[in-house]
Specification:
Elements lengths: L1 H10 L22 H8 L5 H26 L4 H31 L2 H10 L5 H19 L13 H15 L5 H6 L11 H17 L3 H7 L14 H4 L6 H14 L4 H8 L10 H23 L5 H25 L2 H7 L17
Helix pairs in contact: 3-4, 3-7, 4-7, 4-15, 4-16, 7-15, 12-14, 12-15, 13-14
Keywords: Membrane, Transmembrane, Transmembrane helix
InterPro entries: YidC/ALB3/OXA1/COX18
Subcellular location: Membrane
Length: 359
């Protein structure tokens, strides 16, 4: 019996499996192969991510070079930081003009929206608010004045973040949002143990070797950063504020920037008894963001009091420069608050007499 079985295997034709096939039964081919999947998923393609990080790093380096160039042109460091703050504010001018004109065009549609407010008949007040918001979005879409287009000035936030990161690196502060994303924080980690001792020995040797030629190097590579005695000229912007004056100025600036405009918006933001469920979805989120921005503006700067004063100066100057450019833009386009008051539909409260009186 065994001899017949062996002869059958010997006389059987030799089958060669194609690549990717298995000698297991057919139903086993549908089972997941963990080994192949693990080998496939281990091959990560991060070239695109590295390209984006390298582009961000190049932008940060360009901002640093621009600030140093302004200082070498004869400006002090605070003036150079202010010049760097003017760049995002200047880029925001056309976007602010577009947003202001959009608000003016939206205010001209208020009579039509109020007409739908009196026309819509809904069983509940909440359903009426939802229906009115739907009609309002339809009207704005037909006229090409959608509310999301009013967020165009926020496109300058990446430039603001790049300048912030550049100033942080020049000031020598640790951390940073973009450094955390790009992975540069790993290079600033402090080693411990034997590695720290080895690096400290190398640093001591390099310091002793460089101390002999530091005077000649200071005269040859003087960029206006150091005094002859080695004291930092950048000390005013690189140190933190122990008196919390700069955080207080930043908090006041942020609160004044995020302060709601218009009587109606002030009533919604500061009226804690207002039921947000009875508001339109867009207005509801606008009220929530305004409240959150006021809280962050009042508390946030004091949580960053350990940062250099140069960063606080940049944030304050960029906000006030944005206010100045916005006021300049509204001189040509008009204020949206005035347009809203002009096109506001108020109900008639006076009682008209049935008969006309002849004078």
């Amino acid at each position: 019996m065994a001899s017949l079985r062996g002869a059958r295997h010997i006389s059987a034709p030799t089958w060669r499996l194609s690549p990717g096939c298995s000698a297991k039964p057919f139903h086993a081919c549908f089972r997941p192969g963990l080994a192949n999947n693990a080998q496939r998923f281990n091959q990560h393609n991060i070239n695109t991510r590295r390209l984006h990080i390298q582009a961000v790093e190049n932008c940060i380096q360009l901002a640093q070079d621009q600030m140093v160039s302004l200082h070498l042109a004869g400006l002090d460091w605070l003036t150079a930081i202010f010049g760097l703050a003017l760049i995002p504010a200047a880029l925001r001018v056309p976007l602010t003009i577009y947003s202001t004109r959009l608000s003016v065009r939206q205010s001209k549609l208020n009579p039509l929206v109020q007409f739908w407010n009196h026309t819509i008949q809904s069983p509940t007040r909440l359903q009426k608010v939802v229906d009115l918001a739907r009609e309002k979005r339809r009207i704005y879409k037909e006229q090409g004045v959608q509310e999301w287009k009013g967020l165009a000035p926020m496109l300058t936030i990446p430039f603001w973040l790049v300048n912030t990161e550049a100033i942080r690196r020049v000031c020598g502060a640790n951390g940073g949002l973009l450094s955390l994303i790009s992975g540069r924080y790993r290079g600033t980690a402090q080693p411990d143990g034997e590695g720290a001792a080895f690096i400290s020995d190398q640093a001591a040797a390099a310091l002793s070797a460089a101390s002999d030629g530091i005077q000649s190097a200071a005269t040859a590579l003087d960029t206006g950063v150091y005094y002859a005695t080695g004291q930092l000229l950048f000390d005013i912007a690189a140190r933190s504020d122990p008196l919390l004056l700069w955080p207080s100025l930043l908090a006041a600036t942020m609160v004044s920037s995020f302060w709601p405009q218009g009587e109606e918006m002030k009533r919604l933001v500061f009226g804690l008894s207002t039921d947000l469920k009875l508001l339109a979805p867009g207005t509801r989120w606008r009220v929530r963001l305004s409240r959150a921005a006021l809280v962050v503006g009042a508390v946030g700067p004091f949580t960053l009091c350990q940062l250099p004063m140069g960063l606080f100066w940049y944030w304050i100057s960029s906000m006030w420069a944005g206010h100045a450019f916005r006021w300049f833009a509204q001189r040509f386009t008009g204020s949206p608050e005035e347009a809203i008051k002009k096109n506001k539909v108020a109900p008639c409260r006076n009682r008209e007499s049935m008969f006309l009186r002849m004078k």
